[in-house]
Structures are given as C-alpha cells and as structure tokens.
Amino acid sequence: MNMQSLLGQDAPQDLLGTQVCCVVNFAARNIAGFCSEVLILGAPGEGRDVIVVTPRSVVENGAALF
User: Can the keyword Membrane be found in this entry's annotation (predicted)?
Assistant: First the structure.
C-alpha cells in the first residue's frame, strides 16, 4: 500500500503535526520496494479509503499502546 492509498483523498502534508498510532520495534519489511520499519495503524473507511488511527487526546510521543 502506498501513502496515497493510505490517505485516500488527503494529501501527505495533511498529516504533518498529527499524532498517529504506529507499530515500531519489529523487523524491517520490504513493502512495495521500500524498507519499512514503522506500521501506521488504520481501519477501513468508505470505499477503499483508510482511516488513520489517531489518539483522541494529545499523548506523549512514543507512548505505549495497550
């Protein structure tokens, strides 16, 4: 999945300054020819759009999810 399919109608710069939920500290993977060390969490939206998972309140960057 590339960034455009992840964001649907949004542009990548729309995520600047936004906290997103990610999985880190797992083995790097080759995804579409790129080395990926971070998995951005998302859920299916309307059509083929993906809704990026974000916290409801501001949290410390790097905080654990549970």
Answer: no
